[in-house]
Specification:
Layout: H1 24-41, H2 48-73, E1 77-82, E2 85-89, E3 130-134, E4 144-148, E5 151-155
Antiparallel strand pairs: 1-2, 1-3, 4-5
Protein name: Type II secretion system protein H
Organism: Pseudothauera nasutitermitis
Pfam families: GspH, N_methyl
Length: about 160
């Protein structure tokens, strides 16, 4: 006990000193809010749809590039889809008769279907079997629909337009 007339200084206890921490109600509310956020955010962490969309767009861009290369070189460029990948070659066959794989201008690697960024599909993405060749005028040998996952890439027969 301290007395004002003694040499020991007095410490006063602030009135809020015993109110530190969280109440049980506050803790329960935080847990409920975190549970709701987790229930909403977790399904959005499934990236399979994003992987499929990105791969389909990559493949469509590769086909457009193949068409442009065929016109620029005035030669045949072939794209082969299947077995979970696509390959693009500067020849009639890919690459059976000495055809060379085209380089992906985005990363400088061959479009040989070996790894992602080279034509390999992400895990779980299905790629239908299809082969098409663009001639020196950018026309495909046939109109083609390529199924990637649940959606398609269509190449128009007369124009070679990729959509």
């Amino acid at each position: 006990m301290c007395a004002r007339h003694h040499a020991i200084p007095c410490r006063s206890v602030p009135p809020n000193a015993m109110e530190r921490g969280f109440t049980l109600i506050e803790l329960v509310l935080v847990i409920i809010v975190l549970g709701i956020l987790a229930a909403v955010a977790y399904p959005r962490l499934n990236t399979a749809e994003f992987d499929e969309y990105g791969y389909r767009e990559e493949a469509a861009s590769a086909l457009r590039y193949a068409r442009q290369v065929a016109v620029a070189r005035n030669s045949t460029v072939t794209a082969v889809f299947g077995n979970g990948a696509y390959r693009i070659c500067a020849a009639n066959d890919c690459p059976a008769n000495g055809g060379a794989y085209l380089l992906n201008p985005g990363n400088g690697r061959l479009w040989n279907g070996a790894t992602q960024g080279q034509g390999l599909a992400p895990a779980g993405v299905q790629v239908s079997n299809a082969t098409l060749s663009f001639d020196g005028l950018g026309r495909p040998n046939t109109g083609t629909v390529i199924a990637i996952g649940g959606r398609n890439i269509a190449v128009e027969a007369n124009t070679g337009h990729v959509r």
